[in-house]
Amino acid sequence: MTLSVSAGRPVDLRVTPVDEVLDRVERSLQVCLDRETVVRKRRSLGANTDRDTWVRIERRALEKISTQGWNGTECAARLVGIGKPSWCAGVAWRDESGTAMWRADETSRLPGAPVGTSVLAIDPNLPEAWWLALNASLDALAIQRTTRVATPDTETITQAGVTEAIQAVFPGTFDTTITQWVPAHADLNWANMTSPKFCLFDWEDWGNAPRGLDSASLWGSSLAVPVLADRVRRERLHDLESRDGKLMTLFVCSKFAGPDAHPEDPRVGPARYEAARIVEELQAS
Prior knowledge:
Low-confidence stretches: 1-7
Number of helices: 9
CATH architecture of the largest domain: Alpha-Beta Complex
CATH topology of the largest domain: Aminoglycoside 3'-phosphotransferase, Chain: A, domain 2
Mean pLDDT: 93
């Protein structure tokens, strides 16, 4: 199956015709997709099915697929104590162009709508039970065991990559060595969780990562709403105030608060303020 795009041009599934892809998934999983509910993102699609399930379809370039594979959603089925969809079935194939792979995973339906977009602009006013479920799920995830390595933004996370990202934006005379690597979702943001009932979905990139990556990522996604960022910080303080958690906060901030930051991004000021505090503390320790 080949998409109608020019050679070398990035494929954006929000605008590229995908009927052939949807047809193939229906044949492979023996399911009918509700075309009225199709959600299109840059590199993934999703839709309800006629058997009250959800199918997520992703296209990923071959160079973005590591030796561990990219069956994260399937592998996450063995995780316990976490609010997440149940995995039902999956299928994968190589694009006829030879440059990418496709994968479709069928899971149980989500119990509600996503909290919002990846970065929020208003406080979602989540119930207390939601925060309890978030904490229970992240704490349960961190004590489990896996050989997988997290791939945030489809890039395998490494010590060298963490050091390079931090020092490029927040240089200083402090050690960036990570001491604790624990299982993480690796794409924790407000678009990948439901409310009012908590459910964490899109597990394709999960694996071992520095302690605090998920907490720092959610905090960074909340900075445009100070009251929400403060709540995330209070709830995940044991992660964020650990040494590795501080390094992960710098790592997350480096992604959007560097020298080329967008001047109108409301996250930049708070991120730089927090980063300066952390750098000072790390240099003094």
